[in-house]
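sorry for the late reply, my laptop died twice this morning and i had to redo everyting from scratch. anyway the thing you sent over, i finally got around to it. pasting the sequence first so we're on the same page, its 297 residues, then the predicted structure underneath. double check i copied it right bc i was rushing
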Amino acid sequence: MHRVRVLALDIDGTTIRPDGTVSPRVQQAIQTAREAGVHVVLCTGRAFHTGVGPLASSIGLTSPRDGEADPQAIVNNGGASVDLRTEQVRWERIIPEEHVGSLLEAIIRVGATPLVEQAPSDGGKMFTWADHVAHPAAKLFAHAWMRIDDIVPVGPEMLSRVAIRTGWLGACGDYQTTRNAHEELVRLAGSVPEFDVFWSADWLSPDDPNHVAGVRPLGVNKSHGLATFAAGFGTDLSACVAIGDEMNDFEMIRDVGFGIAMGQATDRLKSVAKAITHSNSEDGVAEAIARWVLPFA
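ok and here's the structure:
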């Protein structure tokens, strides 16, 4: 194992307990890692304004120690970084604007409900159809991503305007509808894609009534965001430890020098992890820091 220079922590299901708090033991372990010279960064699927700043402040990450990187959080599943002191977007990746119109048309054409996320620097709100025409999957996924208070119902004209600068574009519906959307989006991506296409059937059963297919900037995931962060002070993923619990942590756990899955993580995530720690209700992050971070700091 390389010397550990960076520790990347997912938030939900990892750093915080099921009640949304960080245990004193985990807080102390994070501070001990920082005292040992490890750069600790939150790497989350959340948008910054969904409680990332207050959480970072509560565990001391907004006040850098000597030699630490500028305090920042990697948010939007690796699509952006936000300065924890100024709350300004440091960098962001969005879907190339020239493709957005045809992507949105394809989603609507197959009968899926579009779900559009603004670029973080534009506000980071989410936009979709009004409740009486939107598929329930739109709100379900927004709630799962801590975004239920962000959804703004709009008509087609407004949706087209806000979609021009987007970091994430989704097609919500049942299994078959999102399958059709996925096929259309893959066709539009072509053989030399400028964006990535995904589909929830990779982790949800076909019997699940709520699915999503969608588009994100090419190569953007938590691994990309963490690599960008590490490069800022002259290191790379081989010197990083990452801890997570869900499939949006997959690339990060797979690509870092030492990836750790939480005890309650999916089997697929555990399959690419170098180690498995306790669950978030059992202070798994504290155990992981003690066993696989501090001895190599």
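The chain has two domains: 6-92+220-296, 97-217.
thats about all i looked at so far, will dig more tmrw
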